[in-house]
Amino acid sequence: MKQRKWLKTTLFGIFILCMSGNVFAQGEPEIDTGATAWMLTSTALVLLMIPGLAMFYGGLVRTKNVLGTMMHSFAAMGIMTVMWIAVGYSMCFGSSVFGGWFGWNPDYVMLSGIDTKIMEGGVPEYVFSMFQGKFAIIAPALIAGAFAERVKFKGYMLFIALWGFFVYNPLCHWVWAEDGFLFNLGANGAIDFAGGTVVHISAGVSGLVAAIYLGGRRGYPKITIDPNNLVMTMIGGGLLWVGWFGFNAGSSVSSGLSTAQALTATQAAAAAGALSWMIIEGLHQGKATALGFISGVLAGLVAVTPAAGVVQPSGAMALGAMAAGVCYMFILLKNKLGYDDSLDAFGVHGVGGIIGAIFLVFFIRKSWMEEAAVLAGGDWTLVQQLGVQIAAVLIAMVYAGVLTYIILVIVSKTIGLKSSEASEMAGLDNSYHGEHGYGMLNPN
Prior knowledge:
about 450 residues, mainly alpha, Ammonium transporter fold, two-stranded antiparallel sheet, 2 strands, globular
């Protein structure tokens, strides 16, 4: 009797649990509302960086080019989003094809197969895909700073479309996809927490190649080219700083300890970069400028981007200070060499990204190295990780540089990229948009 009673009780319990969906489930992760809420917020913060970049760049150019320069950032929001949904997400995070050049997953094309998919971390894959899509927007928008004030709008649109397809998507797959070869380089892969290699180094190097290929703005450097609105530049830089918390802390794809670590490192590096730039500028020029302050902020933010998940605040501050000093020197070197990286896309983003991706090795937290050694099946030294980081940086630089040159030639030989002298002298606003940013009839 006792056995029958026990059996009935057990079967009844199993029935109740099955009805509630707690037993014999399909193994699908449940939504983590906290992590999802943070990732939604991070996605919005990264998107905020695009108008922030538009304001930052727009304030640095001449009045006749302010609207056209801002359109470079906003146009990327449209072009890159459509491309990302259509094929970009599949190329970046699908399984490796063509020898691992990029990825492919039919379910990711037009995001058609992820409608109800929840990732292991409890975040809907729609949210993750949209978060990553914002990185694909900002990378080509950063390049525009290198050739500001001298490119055709239609040529620019074709350029960033080709660049996103052939440069950004493969690099993203190599670094962040689980079967990407840089993700698996060495015992623990190349460290790029939030895009130092994928976004900043690739964009900075591509910008440098474009600036040299297209040549300088007409009259540069003999004619003084002053910013039209540093107030707008400061506000744009501030929006970038705010958005960067989503950029870095959101890359944890969670809402926990790693999120807090990345967020803290981001603030520490930005502040250290700003302070260092002001000190260097004050010693060198006798004055600390507003543009110098916000440039230091960006240098620090760029440098900590690949490192935000592996360094403590002290290491983040060291990277920010180091990046400020090296970026400052490269901008001075640019002026001596004479190439026209208009808004220092390479001088800040390229150089800062290289500094962060390589020198993060010297500030990795002990706990990370201990975990890395376990994954390596034995000892894993800083020297070994340094070799991996240098290799990843060099591969990204060479690949982005060569492919960008090829794309520049194709665009220039087909629909054209560099503005005519008449269009450049009239200004981008009037020549390509039929408008004036400030409603002025004769902008300078």
